[in-house]
Amino acid sequence: MRLVATLLLLAMAVIYAFARSQEHLHPAIGFVRAFAEAAMVGGLADWFAVTALFRHPLGLPIPHTAIIPENKDRIADTMATFLQTNFLTPQVVARRMGAVNAAAAAGAFLADPRGGESRLRDGAAGLLADVLESLDPDELGGIAKGALRRQLEKLDLAPLLGQLLGAAIADGRHMPVIESLIRKAAETIEANEPLIHATIHERANGVLRWTGLDEKLANGILDGLYKLLAETLVVPDHPLRRKIEEGLQNLAHDLLHDAGMQAKVEQMKREVLDNPAFARWLDGLWERGRTRLLQTVRNPHGALGGQFGASLAELGGALQRDPRLQRMVNRFARRTLVGIATRYGGQIVRLVSETVKRWDARTVTDRIEGAVGRDLQFIRINGTLVGGLVGLTLHAIDLAL
To answer: pLDDT tens-digit profile of 204-252?
Structure first.
């Protein structure tokens, strides 16, 4: 487009030179000369304006030219401010996420399980199925359940739980537990919002109820709790998260070293083992386990090899079909992103600003000109044509007068 605009300007120059030399032949040639002359002026003026945005015209250091390279840092700050003001405010993020069904999209992604097994696994699965079906189910079940019960009775549970919890904390595997607790707390608060409003209304004095401040107080408390939980969920070193981690660390220490805590855990274990409900649960567990195991080894492609993929597909299907689950997941996603925008919006736009500032002037110029340069060349073309029409009009007025 730059070449087209330049050729058009050169064409106007050639037409002007020809018309000027032949103007004495006929009065109409004067209109051609006036059009070409004004078109050259308009084209040159717009060429100067467009070029001055990106560089010094003809390399001359004319004031107020090369505007973009000279103001690169200010443009970067303006872009960052525009991004933060129009895209990364909590209100905008909440409004945008309100129109997005993130749960359904995640469900569609998860509902594509992967399978495929080797011939060796097929053969081993068939052999294991034959062995299981040849054994007496009741006798095998009694052996399995008795062995499990004896192992549970001998198990020193408290130190084991302490070691597991300590190892999980050391490896960071306790974080999903903390995040699950935070999400459950948020869901519990949301499910009981009417109760919280009613409680605050009942406890508030008459003045607060008469002025409606009790409702504002309740909304403020709920908003503060939601914000606290959202920030706790997305900020790794949040004080509340650290308190929960400290509590888990203390629990792990007590399970390993506190005799009183160990005695409590052992007593709880005995009560559970002696409860008739545990025996019934153990019977059901064995039956379900045996049935599922036989199904699995008889169909390794659909169950054993693709079990994880099938679980993901099931979760994906639930996300696609269950409106209640979708609302819960979408609500969580919305609040999480609003928390991120609140907490990290300034850092995100600062990254944009600093990135643009680190670019050299030529890079900034090339990228902006590459993005909008075609339209800027149309400005030159339009300036040439409009200038010519203005010149034609002025020439006609001059002859009329």
So the answer is: 655 455 565 667 777 788 788 888 888 877 777 778 778 888 888 888 8
Q: Which 3-state string (H, E, C) describes 223-245?
A: HHHHHHHHHHHHCCCCHHHHHHH
CA distance 242 to 159: 23
Quick one: which of 86, 142, 127, 120 has its CA closest to 286?
142
User: Could you tell me the pTM of the whole model?
Assistant: 0.36
Within 10 Å of residue 47's Cβ, how many Cβ atoms? Answer: 20
Which long-range contacts (C-beta less than 8 Å, at least 24 apart) are formed by 345-353? Answer: 345/84, 345/88, 345/89, 346/84, 348/83, 348/84, 348/88, 349/80, 349/81, 349/83, 349/84, 349/88, 350/80, 352/76, 352/79, 352/80, 352/83, 353/76, 353/77, 353/79, 353/80
**In which region does residue 59 sit, left (phi positive, over 0), alpha (psi from -120 to 50) or beta (all else)?**
left
The two structure tokens encoding residue 400: 């009329």
